[in-house]
């Protein structure tokens, strides 16, 4: 009996090595619905990642035994939360990759986290007055810009994760309404979008659904890495624990792509935030933004968005002032995190326990360790910024839906020079 079992295990191992991962998954998931397939895929990926990490971080002594002391010391020194994109390891010929952001919990790592938080520069006082309903109004009230929230290495891992999801979308491995890459047919038209958590319509769709959250459509859930980003922003006092995002939209810009003037739909509660990657660009604000030509806009207030920064929109800055992103000078990625209004959630949406009960970092502990937080309030009033072009351009009702982009692969991460005015310690 033992010999038969050993022979069966050997044959099974040989068979598994001869099959592609895609073939194994297709066999195991035959007859499953889309949701069950996605759940099985996620569980298998987690198991594969765990085994890969164990092999990578478990050193051996000369006699082949695990060196316990070295292993424990390495575990103490490394703070990890690791997650594969929900299908990337199943691409034929791909290598398993992990995406990590440090999130310390022991005393040493927690102290390092306090130091990181102390280095975040927070600009919270933006001022530009316009006459609204006959009264002078600061239309920028409620805007905050947090720079230094994600460092260069963390940005690289997040960008790699986004590109993996883009590849999955191009291969049809994401839900239909998750990924959008329409044809680029003119300048300013070409933004790739990836939606997680809910399906959002920018305009009336072919089924007659109005702008807003489409409650009877499903998209893929928030990836684990994005949930780690949310935890970081709440823990580091960028977002309030009373408004934890449960959806997001990824925008992938090629050079010349843009976002026209708009106010975010009130199916999403305030505040919400946008994280910027790859290239610094400007965002315009004002109650009366003007379209000059394809991808070129005019507005009274322009704010630079450094790479790795988080722009929080609340108050007048979210509800009175419109905002837009003119044609970007180079490839750019942004991730906008938003919390859905409870009454507007998709019918089959399930709350994620991972995003429940996130507690902000205790400032008193930082003060005890002589770490000081910088709330850098900057009162800035900008002159109008005008883009020059001779072309005429009229915005149509369908100008704001997700727009396509080229499918060129990433040739290398381009991170613009960090221009944040961060204090040196």
TrEMBL record:
Q: Where are the residues of the annotated region Disordered?
A: 55-115, 401-425
GO biological-process terms attached to the record: mRNA catabolic process
Protein name according to UniProt: Fe2OG dioxygenase domain-containing protein
Sequence ranges assigned to domain Fe2OG dioxygenase in this UniProt record: 244-341
| Lineage top rank: taxon | Eukaryota
Question: Which InterPro entries does the record match to this protein?
Answer: AlkB-like (IPR027450), AlkB-like_sf (IPR037151), ALKBH9B/ALKBH10B-like (IPR044842), Oxoglu/Fe-dep_dioxygenase_dom (IPR005123)
Q: Which organism is it from?
A: Quercus lobata (Valley oak)
User: What terms describe the molecular function in GO for this protein?
Assistant: demethylase activity; mRNA binding
Q: Where is the composition biased (Polar residues)?
A: 80-101
Family assignment? Belongs to the alkB family.
């Amino acid at each position: 009996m033992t010999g038969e079992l050993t022979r069966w295990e050997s044959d099974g191992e040989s068979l598994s090595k001869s099959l592609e991962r895609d073939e194994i998954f297709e066999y195991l998931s035959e007859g499953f619905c889309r949701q069950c397939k996605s759940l099985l895929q996620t569980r298998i990926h987690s198991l594969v990642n765990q085994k890969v990490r164990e092999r990578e971080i478990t050193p051996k002594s000369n006699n082949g035994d695990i060196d316990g002391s070295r292993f424990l010391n390495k575990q103490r020194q490394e703070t990890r939360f690791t997650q594969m994109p929900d299908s990337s390891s199943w691409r034929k010929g791909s290598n398993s990759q992990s995406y990590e952001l440090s999130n310390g919990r022991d005393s040493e790592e927690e102290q390092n986290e306090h130091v990181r938080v102390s280095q975040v520069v927070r600009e919270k006082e933006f001022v530009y007055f316009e006459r609204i309903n006959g009264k002078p109004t600061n239309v920028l009230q409620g805007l905050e810009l947090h720079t230094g929230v994600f460092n260069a290495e963390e940005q690289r891992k997040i960008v790699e994760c986004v590109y993996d999801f883009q590849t999955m979308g191009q291969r049809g491995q994401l839900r239909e309404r998750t990924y959008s890459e329409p044809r680029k047919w003119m300048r300013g038209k070409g933004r790739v979008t990836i939606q997680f958590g809910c399906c959002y319509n920018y305009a009336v769709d072919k089924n007659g659904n109005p702008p807003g959250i489409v409650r009877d459509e499903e998209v893929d859930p928030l990836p684990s890495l994005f949930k780690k980003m949310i935890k970081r922003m709440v823990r580091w006092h960028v977002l309030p624990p009373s408004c934890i995002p449960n959806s997001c939209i990824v925008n992938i810009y090629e050079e010349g792509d843009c976002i026209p003037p708009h106010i975010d739909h009130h199916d999403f509660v305030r505040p919400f935030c946008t994280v910027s990657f790859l290239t610094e660009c400007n965002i315009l604000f004002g109650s009366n933004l003007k379209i000059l030509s394809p991808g070129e806009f005019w507005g009274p207030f322009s704010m630079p968005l450094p790479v790795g920064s988080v722009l929080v929109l609340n108050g007048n800055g979210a509800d009175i002032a419109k905002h837009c992103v003119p044609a970007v000078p180079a490839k750019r990625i942004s991730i906008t995190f938003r919390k859905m209004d409870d009454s507007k959630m998709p019918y089959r949406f399930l709350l994620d326990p991972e995003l429940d009960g996130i507690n902000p970092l205790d400032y008193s502990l930082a003060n005890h360790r002589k770490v000081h937080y910088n709330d850098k309030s900057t009162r800035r009033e900008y002159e109008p910024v005008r883009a020059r072009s001779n072309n005429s351009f009229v915005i149509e009702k369908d100008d704001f839906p997700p727009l396509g982009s080229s499918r060129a692969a990433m040739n290398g991460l381009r991170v613009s020079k960090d221009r944040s005015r961060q204090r040196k310690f």
